[in-house]
Specification:
Elements (H helix, E strand, L loop, with lengths): L1 E4 L2 E4 L10 H5 L2 E9 L2 E2 L2 H15 L9 H11 L6 E8 L18 E8 L4 H6 L1 E7 L14 H12 L4 E6 L2 E5 L3 E6 L2 E4 L10 H12 L4 E3 L2 E2 L8 E6 L3 E8 L2 E2 L7 H15 L3
Parallel strand pairs: 7-8, 7-15, 11-12
Antiparallel strand pairs: 1-2, 1-6, 3-4, 3-5, 5-6, 8-9, 9-13, 10-11, 10-14, 14-15, 15-16
The structure holds N-(5'-phosphopyridoxyl)-D-alanine.
The site of N-(5'-phosphopyridoxyl)-D-alanine has 14 residues, from helix 6 and strand 14.
Length: 281
Protein backbone atom coordinates (compact mmCIF):
# COMPACT_ATOMS: atom_id res chain seq x y z
CA UNK A 1 0.00 0.00 0.00
CA UNK A 2 1.28 3.42 -0.96
CA UNK A 3 0.45 6.30 1.36
CA UNK A 4 1.36 9.94 1.61
CA UNK A 5 3.36 10.85 4.67
CA UNK A 6 4.59 14.39 5.20
CA UNK A 7 6.05 15.36 1.85
CA UNK A 8 6.32 12.00 0.19
CA UNK A 9 4.56 9.02 -1.29
CA UNK A 10 5.80 5.96 0.60
CA UNK A 11 5.17 2.28 0.97
CA UNK A 12 3.32 1.90 4.23
CA UNK A 13 6.09 -0.20 5.80
CA UNK A 14 8.61 2.53 5.01
CA UNK A 15 6.76 5.10 7.08
CA UNK A 16 8.21 5.80 10.48
CA UNK A 17 6.69 8.07 13.06
CA UNK A 18 8.39 9.39 16.15
CA UNK A 19 6.81 8.28 19.44
CA UNK A 20 7.19 11.97 20.29
CA UNK A 21 4.66 12.89 17.64
CA UNK A 22 1.89 14.64 19.56
CA UNK A 23 -0.64 12.59 17.62
CA UNK A 24 0.83 9.50 19.27
CA UNK A 25 1.28 11.07 22.71
CA UNK A 26 -1.97 13.01 23.06
CA UNK A 27 -4.17 12.20 20.04
CA UNK A 28 -3.35 15.83 19.28
CA UNK A 29 -4.68 15.82 15.75
CA UNK A 30 -7.66 16.05 13.43
CA UNK A 31 -8.88 13.99 10.50
CA UNK A 32 -11.30 13.58 7.62
CA UNK A 33 -12.78 10.56 5.85
CA UNK A 34 -13.82 11.25 2.27
CA UNK A 35 -15.11 8.90 -0.39
CA UNK A 36 -15.41 8.85 -4.13
CA UNK A 37 -18.45 8.28 -6.30
CA UNK A 38 -17.64 7.50 -9.92
CA UNK A 39 -14.02 7.87 -8.81
CA UNK A 40 -14.50 11.55 -8.01
CA UNK A 41 -14.21 12.87 -4.45
CA UNK A 42 -17.67 13.58 -3.05
CA UNK A 43 -18.22 16.99 -1.43
CA UNK A 44 -14.47 17.60 -1.27
CA UNK A 45 -14.90 21.33 -0.62
CA UNK A 46 -17.15 20.64 2.37
CA UNK A 47 -14.59 18.20 3.81
CA UNK A 48 -11.79 20.71 3.25
CA UNK A 49 -13.76 23.46 4.95
CA UNK A 50 -14.47 21.22 7.94
CA UNK A 51 -10.80 20.21 8.10
CA UNK A 52 -9.73 23.86 8.12
CA UNK A 53 -12.20 24.57 10.89
CA UNK A 54 -10.95 21.62 12.99
CA UNK A 55 -7.36 22.85 12.53
CA UNK A 56 -8.34 26.38 13.52
CA UNK A 57 -10.22 25.27 16.62
CA UNK A 58 -7.31 23.07 17.74
CA UNK A 59 -4.75 25.76 16.78
CA UNK A 60 -2.77 23.40 14.55
CA UNK A 61 -0.82 25.56 12.20
CA UNK A 62 -1.21 23.84 8.82
CA UNK A 63 -2.05 25.71 5.66
CA UNK A 64 -0.66 23.71 2.80
CA UNK A 65 -4.03 22.77 1.31
CA UNK A 66 -3.51 23.53 -2.36
CA UNK A 67 -1.97 20.27 -3.42
CA UNK A 68 -4.02 17.91 -1.22
CA UNK A 69 -6.68 17.12 -3.78
CA UNK A 70 -4.10 16.15 -6.41
CA UNK A 71 -2.13 14.13 -3.88
CA UNK A 72 -5.28 12.15 -3.07
CA UNK A 73 -5.93 11.37 -6.75
CA UNK A 74 -2.26 10.41 -7.12
CA UNK A 75 -2.43 7.94 -4.23
CA UNK A 76 -5.59 6.43 -5.67
CA UNK A 77 -3.75 5.97 -8.97
CA UNK A 78 -0.57 4.65 -7.36
CA UNK A 79 -2.59 2.02 -5.50
CA UNK A 80 -4.37 0.98 -8.71
CA UNK A 81 -7.79 1.41 -7.18
CA UNK A 82 -10.18 0.92 -10.03
CA UNK A 83 -13.44 1.12 -8.10
CA UNK A 84 -14.44 3.52 -5.35
CA UNK A 85 -12.02 4.77 -2.71
CA UNK A 86 -12.25 5.77 0.91
CA UNK A 87 -9.67 8.38 1.81
CA UNK A 88 -8.35 8.86 5.33
CA UNK A 89 -6.49 12.10 6.02
CA UNK A 90 -4.96 12.99 9.34
CA UNK A 91 -2.96 15.99 10.52
CA UNK A 92 -1.29 16.08 13.93
CA UNK A 93 0.48 18.94 15.67
CA UNK A 94 3.76 17.18 14.82
CA UNK A 95 6.77 15.73 16.50
CA UNK A 96 8.33 17.35 19.58
CA UNK A 97 11.56 17.05 21.60
CA UNK A 98 9.86 16.19 24.84
CA UNK A 99 6.41 15.56 26.20
CA UNK A 100 4.71 18.64 27.60
CA UNK A 101 0.98 19.17 27.73
CA UNK A 102 1.08 22.72 26.43
CA UNK A 103 2.26 23.39 22.89
CA UNK A 104 6.04 22.99 22.56
CA UNK A 105 8.33 26.03 22.74
CA UNK A 106 9.92 25.15 19.41
CA UNK A 107 7.89 25.46 16.22
CA UNK A 108 6.68 22.05 15.06
CA UNK A 109 5.83 20.92 11.57
CA UNK A 110 2.43 19.24 11.49
CA UNK A 111 2.45 15.60 10.42
CA UNK A 112 0.26 14.87 7.40
CA UNK A 113 -0.81 11.32 6.65
CA UNK A 114 -3.14 10.27 3.83
CA UNK A 115 -4.14 6.72 2.93
CA UNK A 116 -6.75 5.27 0.62
CA UNK A 117 -8.48 1.94 0.43
CA UNK A 118 -10.97 0.46 -1.95
CA UNK A 119 -14.47 1.09 -0.70
CA UNK A 120 -17.58 -0.97 -1.17
CA UNK A 121 -20.83 0.07 0.41
CA UNK A 122 -22.80 -2.48 2.39
CA UNK A 123 -25.88 -2.96 0.22
CA UNK A 124 -27.47 -5.40 2.63
CA UNK A 125 -27.28 -2.94 5.53
CA UNK A 126 -28.74 -0.25 3.34
CA UNK A 127 -31.64 -2.28 2.06
CA UNK A 128 -32.50 -4.22 5.22
CA UNK A 129 -31.48 -1.74 7.87
CA UNK A 130 -29.40 -2.24 11.00
CA UNK A 131 -29.62 -2.65 14.72
CA UNK A 132 -28.18 0.08 16.94
CA UNK A 133 -27.72 0.25 20.68
CA UNK A 134 -27.97 3.24 22.99
CA UNK A 135 -24.89 4.20 24.97
CA UNK A 136 -24.08 7.07 27.28
CA UNK A 137 -22.28 9.91 25.48
CA UNK A 138 -19.12 10.29 27.56
CA UNK A 139 -17.22 12.35 24.96
CA UNK A 140 -15.83 15.84 25.53
CA UNK A 141 -17.84 19.00 24.86
CA UNK A 142 -16.24 19.83 21.49
CA UNK A 143 -17.70 17.05 19.34
CA UNK A 144 -17.93 19.61 16.52
CA UNK A 145 -14.16 19.18 16.04
CA UNK A 146 -13.16 16.11 14.05
CA UNK A 147 -10.47 15.16 16.51
CA UNK A 148 -8.51 11.90 16.45
CA UNK A 149 -9.12 11.61 20.17
CA UNK A 150 -11.73 8.89 19.81
CA UNK A 151 -11.41 6.49 22.75
CA UNK A 152 -14.96 7.04 24.06
CA UNK A 153 -16.42 6.18 20.65
CA UNK A 154 -14.04 3.26 20.16
CA UNK A 155 -15.39 1.74 23.39
CA UNK A 156 -19.03 2.49 22.55
CA UNK A 157 -18.65 1.05 19.06
CA UNK A 158 -16.93 -2.05 20.41
CA UNK A 159 -19.91 -2.59 22.73
CA UNK A 160 -22.19 -2.28 19.68
CA UNK A 161 -20.25 -4.87 17.75
CA UNK A 162 -20.31 -7.25 20.73
CA UNK A 163 -24.10 -6.90 20.69
CA UNK A 164 -24.34 -7.49 16.94
CA UNK A 165 -25.27 -3.89 16.33
CA UNK A 166 -23.92 -1.69 13.55
CA UNK A 167 -23.67 1.47 15.61
CA UNK A 168 -23.96 2.89 19.10
CA UNK A 169 -26.21 5.94 19.38
CA UNK A 170 -25.06 8.30 22.07
CA UNK A 171 -27.24 9.82 24.78
CA UNK A 172 -26.17 12.87 26.78
CA UNK A 173 -28.35 14.06 29.67
CA UNK A 174 -31.26 12.07 28.27
CA UNK A 175 -30.95 13.57 24.78
CA UNK A 176 -29.79 11.76 21.64
CA UNK A 177 -26.75 13.45 20.16
CA UNK A 178 -25.44 11.24 17.31
CA UNK A 179 -23.80 7.91 16.60
CA UNK A 180 -20.14 7.07 17.26
CA UNK A 181 -19.36 7.80 13.61
CA UNK A 182 -22.73 8.76 12.16
CA UNK A 183 -25.46 11.36 12.56
CA UNK A 184 -28.83 10.15 13.78
CA UNK A 185 -32.23 10.96 12.26
CA UNK A 186 -35.79 10.14 13.29
CA UNK A 187 -39.14 10.68 11.58
CA UNK A 188 -42.49 11.55 13.14
CA UNK A 189 -45.65 12.56 11.24
CA UNK A 190 -43.60 12.90 8.03
CA UNK A 191 -41.22 15.36 9.70
CA UNK A 192 -37.53 14.54 9.76
CA UNK A 193 -35.70 15.29 13.01
CA UNK A 194 -31.98 15.44 13.75
CA UNK A 195 -29.89 17.03 16.50
CA UNK A 196 -29.02 20.69 15.88
CA UNK A 197 -25.55 21.83 14.90
CA UNK A 198 -23.77 22.54 18.14
CA UNK A 199 -20.69 21.56 20.08
CA UNK A 200 -22.39 18.25 20.92
CA UNK A 201 -22.35 16.77 17.42
CA UNK A 202 -20.17 16.64 14.36
CA UNK A 203 -21.57 18.71 11.52
CA UNK A 204 -21.74 15.72 9.17
CA UNK A 205 -21.49 16.29 5.44
CA UNK A 206 -24.00 13.54 4.72
CA UNK A 207 -26.31 15.15 7.30
CA UNK A 208 -26.00 18.39 5.38
CA UNK A 209 -26.75 16.63 2.07
CA UNK A 210 -29.89 15.03 3.57
CA UNK A 211 -31.13 18.37 4.94
CA UNK A 212 -30.53 19.92 1.52
CA UNK A 213 -32.76 17.21 0.01
CA UNK A 214 -35.46 17.94 2.59
CA UNK A 215 -35.36 21.60 1.61
CA UNK A 216 -35.33 20.89 -2.08
CA UNK A 217 -38.24 18.47 -1.94
CA UNK A 218 -40.18 20.51 0.60
CA UNK A 219 -40.09 17.83 3.26
CA UNK A 220 -40.54 19.13 6.78
CA UNK A 221 -37.52 18.88 9.00
CA UNK A 222 -36.52 20.07 12.43
CA UNK A 223 -33.05 20.38 13.93
CA UNK A 224 -33.97 19.47 17.50
CA UNK A 225 -32.60 17.10 20.11
CA UNK A 226 -34.70 14.00 20.63
CA UNK A 227 -35.37 12.89 24.16
CA UNK A 228 -34.42 9.25 24.62
CA UNK A 229 -37.75 8.66 26.39
CA UNK A 230 -39.60 10.07 23.38
CA UNK A 231 -38.05 7.65 20.88
CA UNK A 232 -41.13 5.41 20.84
CA UNK A 233 -43.19 8.28 19.42
CA UNK A 234 -41.13 8.22 16.21
CA UNK A 235 -41.83 5.81 13.42
CA UNK A 236 -38.61 5.76 11.37
CA UNK A 237 -34.92 6.11 12.10
CA UNK A 238 -31.77 6.24 10.05
CA UNK A 239 -28.09 7.09 10.38
CA UNK A 240 -25.87 8.96 7.94
CA UNK A 241 -22.16 9.20 7.25
CA UNK A 242 -19.60 9.11 4.49
CA UNK A 243 -19.27 5.35 4.91
CA UNK A 244 -22.84 4.40 5.90
CA UNK A 245 -24.50 6.82 3.46
CA UNK A 246 -28.16 6.67 4.56
CA UNK A 247 -28.67 3.47 6.49
CA UNK A 248 -32.09 2.64 7.96
CA UNK A 249 -32.26 1.70 11.63
CA UNK A 250 -34.71 -1.11 12.21
CA UNK A 251 -33.87 -2.01 15.79
CA UNK A 252 -32.87 0.09 18.79
CA UNK A 253 -31.65 -2.09 21.65
CA UNK A 254 -34.44 -4.71 21.86
CA UNK A 255 -37.11 -2.61 20.16
CA UNK A 256 -37.90 -3.72 16.64
CA UNK A 257 -39.22 -0.80 14.61
CA UNK A 258 -41.97 -1.15 12.02
CA UNK A 259 -41.64 -4.98 11.98
CA UNK A 260 -38.02 -4.58 10.99
CA UNK A 261 -38.84 -2.76 7.73
CA UNK A 262 -37.08 0.48 6.71
CA UNK A 263 -39.53 3.40 6.71
CA UNK A 264 -41.12 5.17 3.75
CA UNK A 265 -39.40 8.57 4.20
CA UNK A 266 -36.07 6.86 4.83
CA UNK A 267 -36.41 4.94 1.57
CA UNK A 268 -37.41 8.07 -0.35
CA UNK A 269 -34.36 9.95 0.93
CA UNK A 270 -32.16 6.95 0.21
CA UNK A 271 -33.26 6.88 -3.39
CA UNK A 272 -32.59 10.61 -3.87
CA UNK A 273 -29.17 10.08 -2.33
CA UNK A 274 -28.51 7.18 -4.67
CA UNK A 275 -29.48 9.22 -7.70
CA UNK A 276 -27.30 12.18 -6.69
CA UNK A 277 -24.29 9.98 -6.06
CA UNK A 278 -24.81 7.94 -9.22
CA UNK A 279 -24.85 11.18 -11.19
CA UNK A 280 -21.76 12.55 -9.41
CA UNK A 281 -18.98 13.29 -11.86
N1 LIG B 1 -17.20 9.68 10.73
N2 LIG B 1 -20.64 12.03 13.60
C1 LIG B 1 -19.44 11.55 13.92
C2 LIG B 1 -19.05 11.52 15.36
C3 LIG B 1 -18.56 11.10 12.92
O1 LIG B 1 -17.34 10.63 13.24
C4 LIG B 1 -18.98 11.14 11.57
C5 LIG B 1 -18.08 10.69 10.44
C6 LIG B 1 -20.26 11.63 11.27
C7 LIG B 1 -20.76 11.73 9.86
O2 LIG B 1 -20.05 12.72 9.15
P1 LIG B 1 -19.91 12.65 7.56
O3 LIG B 1 -21.29 12.56 7.03
O4 LIG B 1 -19.27 13.96 7.22
O5 LIG B 1 -19.09 11.46 7.24
C8 LIG B 1 -21.06 12.09 12.32
C9 LIG B 1 -16.26 9.24 9.72
C10 LIG B 1 -16.93 8.53 8.60
C11 LIG B 1 -15.18 8.43 10.37
O6 LIG B 1 -15.08 8.46 11.60
O7 LIG B 1 -14.39 7.82 9.66
Amino acid sequence: MIVYFNNDFKLINEVSLSPFDRGFLFADGVYESIRTYNRKLFRYEDHLERLKRSLKETRIDFDNFNSIKNIIYDIIKKNNIEKESLVYLQITRGSVQQRTHSFPMEKTTPTLFISVKEFKEDNEEQSKGVKVILQEDVRWLRCDIKSTSLLPVVLANQKASEEDAAEAILVRDGMITEGTHTNFFAVKDETVFTAPKSRLILDGITRKVVLEFCEKFKMDFKEEFIDKDDLKNFTEFFITSTTKELTPVTMIDYWQINNGEPGKITKALQSVFKKVTEDHY
